[in-house]
Each structure stands twice: as structure tokens, then as C-alpha cells.
Design goal:
With 428 residues, the chain is mainly β. The protein has helices at residues 2-27, 267-270, and strands spanning 30-31, 34-35, 42-45, 53-58, 65-70, 87-89, 97-102, 108-115, 123-126, 137-138, 141-144, 150-151, 159-160, 165-166, 179-180, 185-188, 195-199, 203-207, 211-216, 222-227, 234-237, 245-250, 256-261, 265-266, 281-289, 295-300, 311-313, 316-319, 322-325, 329-334, 339-349, 356-363, 374-376, 384-393, 398-405, 416-425.
Length: 428
């Protein structure tokens, strides 16, 4: 029994050694008489996400080594680091802060993660809007500028869906003055424009110094404005030698305007048919006295002509700006103050045989003549006389313009035509 056990043990050892030798012969090539048997190896340089590593194997029989490359792993974005350089978006009242995930090497990826807490609302106040007569108002409210939610309080504790409305009052504010346009007038609410008491215009004629128009008697709106159309005018105040007169022009609308008439005395304009010939002008016949000291007697005409439009006596007929004389006649003017006057006398008319002469004489208030009358015959013209002179007169003096026919033997030569005498005060 012992011999058999021993034999079996020897047999097992031989088998085991045979197996080991077979493995050694299969695992490496001979070097220096050794057949290598390599271990499982160890990492001698660790691979990273961007660089390869090294794995070293050692022969268990002789200690010889060999290496293999361990490939780089590539980035692995599995780290959650809440650092500003990985920040995607700040935290708000409705979202936490968002960051990119990162690799161990510090590189950031595209996948994100949330971190931290929500922040408070950022509230902006909208002031209260008062209600009006027609429009509702709103209570004050606060809006979060981040999330857009509305709150009725400044602390953002009470959220509301929309501003709290204040109902319209319905109380219109009508002004005291009427509002108007081309169609009519009304009272208008100054807040919302609501109209009440509309009425059409009641137009009446009106005018001022510049225009005439139709005006509403209620609201005074004006329409159809146009410039005045003045008539030819009427002398409302006659001028005198020393004061201006006035001429009044009237429009069909009733408006009037005045225009000054220069100060002057005009026989044609001032002629009057009033009894007694009141005023500074007088008209009559003349009896002339010849001699060294010439003189004349003036007789004022007091009788009307047959037509009633002039004065006539002793062969003399005088109308406004017109004479007809078979005798010497005169138109006279009396001044009421000391004055220097410029005289312009014109006559046109008569016949080809007319030889008209003019004598200008001045007498004082006592009827005393100043020297001989000045003589002017117009160069013996037949029917035209233009005369101009300057006279220094004292208060009460009367200047006589005496017209005579130098061709006395020919009745056809008697002056018959237009006459005007204009006196103008000389100032300075």
C-alpha cells in the first residue's frame, strides 16, 4: 500500500513539472537561455484624457520587462463645479443658476446642471392711474422685470393676474365756455371730450374796423369774413384854412372809417346856399374906384338865382365852383387870426373874346384897403387864368378876388366858366 502511494505521488509531480515546462516554452522566446514568463503588468504612467499612458510587464523568471501603450481616455464631462467660468445663466426668481459640466482637466462640456437657490423678484412699480368720467383707472402694482409676474404689493407677496381696476366715475367735467366748429357749438368734457347741449349757430351780421362777417350770437364764432367795400365817402367835417376836415367812408355792413382832409379853404368845396352866406366866404358884385388910390365897394349877393342852386344879382351869378358875370364881381374870404396863406386861383371858360383880369385886394376889419389891389391878367389869355401868390393877413382881414372882363364892349366876352380859389396856410 505504501509503495503504491509513493508511486502515485512521484507520478503527479512529474506531470506538474511537465505542464509548467510546457507553459514556459509557450510564453516567451529564449533569451540568455531563459524562456520568459510575464506577469499581469502594472500601470507605470497613467493615461489622461488627452495623453496616452504606459503599462509595464515583468518576467517572473528573469526579471526582464516590456511595455505597452495605454490609450488616452478622452474628456469625461462628469464634474459639477459651480464656478463663474462655467456659468450659463444667473439665478432668477423662477430658475436656479445653470452651469456647464466639466472634465477633470478643467475643460467645459455642453451638458448643464442647476445649482444654488432662486433669487428674489426684481419689482418695478407702476403708479396708480385715477379713474376719469369715461375711463377706468388702476391701482398701483409691481411687475417683476425677470419673470413678468404682477404683484399688488412692493414685497412681491401677493401675485395678481392683472392690475386692479378702479371703475370710471361717470362724472364729466364740462367747461364754462362753448366749444365750436363750422356746424355748431356745445359744451365739451375737458377730460374725455363728451359733448352736451349741441346747437346750430345763430348767425347775425357783424363788423369791425377791418372786416365784416357773420357771427353766432351765442358762441361768437365768425364766418364769411371779408374786407370792407367803401363808398365814395362824405365830407362830415369841412376843413378850414387852419384846421383839418374829415371825410367818412361807409361800407354796406354799416362800418365806417374816416380820413383827414388837409386844412384848406376852397371856394368850390365851401360854397353854401344858406341864407346870409354864413362862414368866411362871401360872394357879390364890385363897384371899382380908379385913381391914384384905387378902391372898391363890395356888395354881397343875398338873392338866389332862378334855379335855386346859386346866388344872382346885378348881372352876377355864382354857383359852387362856377361864375357868370357881365359886371365886375368878387369872391372874398375873411380870416379870424393872423395867418400866412398861399393862394391858388384857376379859371377855365368864357369865349375866344374873353379877356379876364384879376385884382387881389385886402381890407382890414374896418374896411380900410391895404394899398392898391394886385393886378393879374394871365398874359391876356382868352379863357384860362392860373394865379398863385402868398399873402400875410391879420385877424379880421378880408381878401377880395375881383374878376373883371377887359373886353367890356363885347357881351360875348363875359366870363362864364369854372372857378376855384384854394387857400392853404403856410406853416413856418
Amino acid at each position: 500500500m505504501r509503495v503504491s502511494f509513493f508511486k502515485r505521488t512521484i507520478f503527479v509531480l512529474i506531470v506538474v513539472l511537465s505542464v509548467i515546462t510546457a507553459f514556459a516554452l509557450a510564453g516567451c522566446e529564449d533569451k540568455d537561455g531563459c524562456t520568459h514568463v510575464w506577469n499581469d503588468g502594472e500601470i507605470t504612467t497613467a493615461a489622461t484624457c488627452t495623453q496616452d499612458g504606459v503599462k509595464t510587464f515583468t518576467c517572473t523568471l528573469c526579471g526582464e520587462t516590456r511595455t505597452e501603450v495605454v490609450g488616452s481616455s478622452g474628456h469625461v464631462f462628469d464634474r459639477e463645479v459651480a464656478d463663474a467660468k462655467y456659468l450659463v445663466s444667473e439665478a432668477t426668481c423662477i430658475a436656479k443658476a445653470v452651469y456647464y459640466k466639466s472634465c477633470a482637466c478643467g475643460e467645459k462640456g455642453t451638458e448643464t446642471f442647476e445649482y444654488g437657490e432662486y433669487v428674489a423678484h426684481t419689482l418695478v412699480k407702476t403708479e396708480r392711474v385715477e379713474a376719469t368720467c369715461a375711463n377706468a383707472g388702476t391701482e398701483a402694482y409691481w411687475t417683476c422685470s425677470a419673470c413678468g409676474k404682477l404683484f399688488s404689493d412692493e414685497n412681491g407677496t401677493t401675485e395678481i393676474g392683472e392690475p386692479v381696476a378702479i371703475p370710471a366715475t361717470g362724472d364729466h367735467v364740462y367747461g364754462a365756455d362753448l366749444t365750436k366748429d363750422a356746424t355748431g357749438h356745445w359744451y365739451e368734457c375737458s377730460v374725455c371730450g363728451n359733448k352736451k347741449d349741441f346747437a346750430e349757430h345763430t348767425l347775425v351780421g357783424g363788423h369791425n374796423a377791418d372786416i365784416h362777417y357773420d357771427e353766432c350770437s351765442v358762441c361768437h364764432a365768425r364766418f364769411n369774413e371779408s374786407a370792407h367795400e367803401w363808398d365814395g365817402g362824405v365830407v362830415t367835417t369841412k376843413p378850414t384854412l387852419t384846421s383839418e376836415g374829415e371825410k367818412t367812408y361807409t361800407c354796406a355792413c354799416g362800418e365806417s372809417r374816416t380820413q383827414a382832409i388837409p386844412a384848406q379853404a376852397s371856394f368850390a368845396d365851401d360854397f353854401t346856399l344858406e341864407e346870409g352866406q354864413p362862414g368866411p366866404w362871401s360872394y357879390g358884385s364890385v363897384n371899382y374906384v380908379w385913381g391914384a388910390q384905387e378902391d372898391f365897394t363890395f356888395t354881397q349877393i343875398t338873392s338866389k338865382n332862378d334855379g335855386g342852386d346859386g346866388w344872382a344879382s346885378e348881372g352876377v351869378e355864382i354857383k359852387g365852383g362856377w361864375i357868370n358875370a357881365s359886371n365886375m364881381m368878387a369872391v372874398a374870404y375873411t380870416v379870424d387870426r393872423d395867418v400866412t396863406v398861399k393862394v391858388n386861383l384857376t379859371f377855365t371858360g368864357g369865349t375866344a373874346d374873353t379877356r379876364l383880369s384879376l385884382r387881389t385886394g385886402v381890407k382890414n376889419a374896418d374896411g380900410v384897403i391895404y394899398g392898391n389891389p394886385a393886378y393879374f391878367d394871365g398874359g391876356k389869355q382868352s379863357n384860362v387864368l392860373n394865379y398863385e401868390t402868398r399873402l400875410e393877413l391879420k385877424a379880421g382881414d378880408t381878401v377880395y378876388f375881383i374878376l373883371g372882363n377887359e373886353n367890356v364892349t363885347n357881351p360875348a366876352a363875359y366870363p362864364n366858366g369854372e372857378l376855384d380859389i384854394v387857400l392853404t396856410q403856410v406853416i413856418g
